[in-house]
Amino acid sequence: MSIEDKLRDALQATANTVDDQVHRPLPEQRPRPSTLRLRLVPLGAVAAVLILLVGFLTAQRLWDDPAERLQRTPVMPKFIFASTVDGGDTPNDSSFSLEVRESATGRLVDRHKAPKGFEFDGVAALSDNRTFYVTSGPQSEKPCRTTIQRVRVSDAGKIIGMEPIASGPVAGVGPDNGNGPLAVTPNGTKLAYAVLDCSARSSEEAAGERARIVVVDLVTNTQREWHDSGQGDGASQLSWTADGSQLFFVRRVQSRDSSVRYTEELRKIKSSVSGGAQLAGNSNLIQTVTSPSVYVSALASPDGRSVLTSAMELQLGAESGGPNSVPDPSSEAQGPVELLELSAQDGRMLRQIRLASASWLEIFAFKNDASGLYLLTSGGIVDLHKGGPAHPLKGLGGVADFDW
User: Fold this and answer.
1) CA-CA distance, 227 to 240, in Å (whole number)?
2) What global pTM score does this model have?
3) How far apart are CA 278 and CA 227, in angstroms?
C-alpha cells in the first residue's frame, strides 16, 4: 500500500467518528481573577496589623503616668492665653501684658504689652485654640470704658492680629468680685461680658441698678443685656454651655444682715431670654455661699447638666452660713483641695474631685478645655479623670485671667 492510500484510510477513519446529530458546546470561559481582589487581600492584612498596633498604643497611653500623658495627649490644647500684671509701687506703675504659653511646658511663646496707662483683664478662648478675646481698659477711673479685642495667633503661637469687636468700646468696668468677666461660645458665635456702670463706682446704692450682663452675637453684631436689681452687686465667672443655649455665672448680693456682708449665688440663664429682662428674676439659682466665702469659679459642663465649682474662705476661722452652702475651707489651709460637680437642676453634689497636695491659692482661678478632660489652674493642669495632683507649669502664678 502506498503512502497516499494510508493517508486516505486515516482521514476516512477520522471522519467516521464525527456525529452530525451531537452538539458540542464551546469551551467554557472562566472569569480571570480580579486584580483589585488580589490587591485587597494584602491590604486587609496590613489594616488588621495597624488596628492591633493602634489598640496597643492606646492601652499603653492609658496606663502611662498622668503627668506623662498630659505631655502627649492630642486633645489637650496646645497654647494657654493669659493676661498678666507685674506690680509696681502704685497701680499706675504696674505693667500689664498678654502672654501665650505652651500648655505642655509653660514655656513663653509670645508676649504683647498693654499700651501705657491701660490694663488687660478677662480672657476667653475659642475651641480652635488660635483665637481668643480679651477685655482691656484704662488704669485710671476716667474714661470709664472697657474695650473687647479679638486676638489671633499663628500655629506657632505668635500673636498675628488684634482688633476691637464691631460693637465698639463698652461703657462700664469689670466687676471687682472675681475673675471671669468674659466668656465666648466654643464656636465663636456668642460672647458675654459682665460690667458695672460708671455711676456704680461712686455710689454703692446705685451699684445694684447698674450691674449687667451683655451678650453679643458676633455673627450679626447685635446685642442684648440683662440688668441686675435690688442688692445685686455685679456678676462674674461667666461660662457658656457648648451650644450657647445657657450661660452660667456668679452673682454677688449685698446682705441686709449686719453679720453677713454678702451672699454669692451660683446661677444660670437661658440665652433665649429677651433683652432688658431682670437678671435675678429670669435666671435659675443653683447654690449659694455667704461671706467670707467666695466661689473660686463656675464652669458649665458642655451639655449644661452640671457645673464644676469650688468655694474658698477669705479669712481663717470665719464661718459660712446657709443650709445649702458649699464647704468653705480657709484660703490659708494646705493639703487636699476638693472641687465639686453640682447638678445644674437642683444643686445636688454629683462628684468630688480631690486635688492632692494643692492649696486654695493655687486654684484661685480655673478653666476647663473644650474636651472637658483637663482643668487649667494657676497651680497647673489637672487630669479630671484621674484627679490631682496638678501638673505644674511655669508662668501661671499671679495671672489676672487665662484660658486655652
Assistant:
1) 19
2) 0.74
3) 5
